Amino acid sequence: MSRLVVVSNRVATPTETKGSAGGLAVGVFGALKDSGGVWFGWSGDVVSETVANQGPKLERDGAVTFATVGLPKKDYDQYYRGFSNAMLWPVFHYRNDLAVYDRDEYAGYRRVNAWLAHKLIKLLEPDDIIWVHDYHLIPFAEALRSAGIKNRIGFFLHIPFPSPQILLNIPPHEELVKSLCCYDVVGFQTERDRIAFHDYIVRHAHGTATPDGHIEAFGRTLKTSVYRIGVFPDEIAEQAERGEARQDVMDLKQSLEGRKLIMSVDRLDYSKGLVERFRAFEHFLEKSPEWRGNVTLVQIAPPTRADVETYQQIRQNLEYEAGRINGRYSGLDYTPIRYLNQRYDRWKLMSLFRESQVGLVTPLRDGMNLVAKEYIAAQNPDDPGVLVLSQFAGAADEMTGAMMVNPHDIVGTSEAIARALAMPLAERKQRYETNMIALRKHNLGVWRDDFLADLRGDAKA
Ligand code: GDG
């Protein structure tokens, strides 16, 4: 079997790939271990030009090499903070209003992609297959192709692909789509993302796209497909159950004093609908006086991208909203929203999910949303909690047992919270079973294996 080379903006550390950390890192590392290979990308460090130019730092773990490079400040600003996170992220999440376009940042984005590609070339072998991840690295294959690299290269987009009318807001939209066409396989989280890409190819790039995903455009042919990212449900169930007996979780349980628990966990990001969620919870308390004092919303929201201005604003807005709502409904011994601006161990999150009666996952737009899937996997099958899920999360296509909401509809979301809290056991079990069937069908291993089979060009049985 040919070696696998994974390229992503951030490379997991060898410890993050061990089971206790869980998640995507474990899934991708599994594939790397099977075929041997390299995981290449940014180390997360901002370094001097001299250090950046020294070549990748290599760490080995069995047949897998972790190869990382630092980024000079200017590259970090233009490629990561600038074009990736102040332009691509908002527009791909349908938030043109928050996007900031700067030509120099775009030039920096392409320059860093080319620079990273040249660093990788030295580590490549002729029959390696290369799997590139996410929006930071759209031009990566094009840079490799210009240097004469003929290997199979695939790309998976973790976030939504916007409809053409939205994408047109990015001045170099055509260059970006042309860059995507330099891959052999381009994978999306949902059919709606793939169709949006096909629409652009047909209407704006004078290309052709067949329903089964064969694309011809910009003088290239490629395949598109949908690969629904998932979780390993059994591993999560086990983590959640084991954690239940640990002190931190017992302490939380005790502090709730018999109150019901609603859990939410998101990176602190405006795409996750946190302000709307807090307002829906406020509306619920307003309309349901009998629940005041009897239910607590725990919102865990570790900060990310804190140096992008829009992220500073969302943080301020949330602090204001949480303070305002708590001011209105707290008692001497009761705080309705516990808003925790920090990162927790994964086992703790899974155990808290298991302890809770409702999982509130209401992004305004999300490629998939793994928290929704983790929430289901962590439940006690004999007494499962209810998932209240935004229709705009990719996960909504599969988690059909969830109570679906439009997160902009504050009243509708508040009514869903009320229904979820009062739901009889039989209905909760039935919804849980429906979701678990989908979770098992598209687990993380299936996502990875299907993508790699297409990238390797394996014939379907
Ligand atoms: C992107 C796309 C897509 C969160 N807080 C803590 C913590 N987490 C973990 C969650 C989950 C992961 O981070 C977040 O994944 P999501 O899928 O929910 O969202 P994004 O970070 O925006 O991810 C998304 C995903 O890529 C995969 O393709 O689903 O749509 O936006 O696993 O549990 N983990 C720990 N402590 C925390 O405080 N340990």
Describe the protein in words.
- The protein is of the alpha/beta class and 461 residues long.
- It has two domains: 4-230 and 444-460, Rossmann fold (3-Layer(aba) Sandwich), CATH 3.40.50.2000; 233-440, Rossmann fold (3-Layer(aba) Sandwich).
- Helices cover 44% and strands 19% of the residues.
- The protein has 17 helices and 16 strands.
- The protein has a ten-stranded mixed sheet, with helices on both faces. Strands 13-12-11-14-15-16 form a six-stranded parallel sheet, with helices on both faces.
- A hairpin with a 2-residue loop joins strand 9 and strand 10 (220-226).
- It is globular.
- The protein starts with a strand and ends in a 5-residue tail after the last helix.
- The mean pLDDT is 94.
- The structure holds GDP-alpha-D-glucose (GDG).
- GDP-alpha-D-glucose (GDG) binds next to helix 13 and helix 14.
Which sequence of strands runs across the widest sheet? 3-4-2-1-5-6-7-10-9-8
Radius of gyration: 22 Å
How far the N terminus sits from the C terminus, by CA atoms, comes to: 18 Å
Tally of strands: 16
CATH superfamily of the largest domain: Glycogen Phosphorylase B
Number of helices: 17
The tally of structural domains comes to: 2
> What is the annotated CATH architecture of the largest domain?
3-Layer(aba) Sandwich
The name of the CATH topology of the largest domain is: Rossmann fold
Largest sheet: 10 strands, mixed
Based on CA inertia axes, which overall geometry fits?
A: globular
Overall mean pLDDT: 94
Family: Belongs to the glycosyltransferase 20 family.
EC number: 2.4.1.15
Subunit structure: Homotetramer.
GO molecular function, one term: alpha,alpha-trehalose-phosphate synthase (UDP-forming) activity
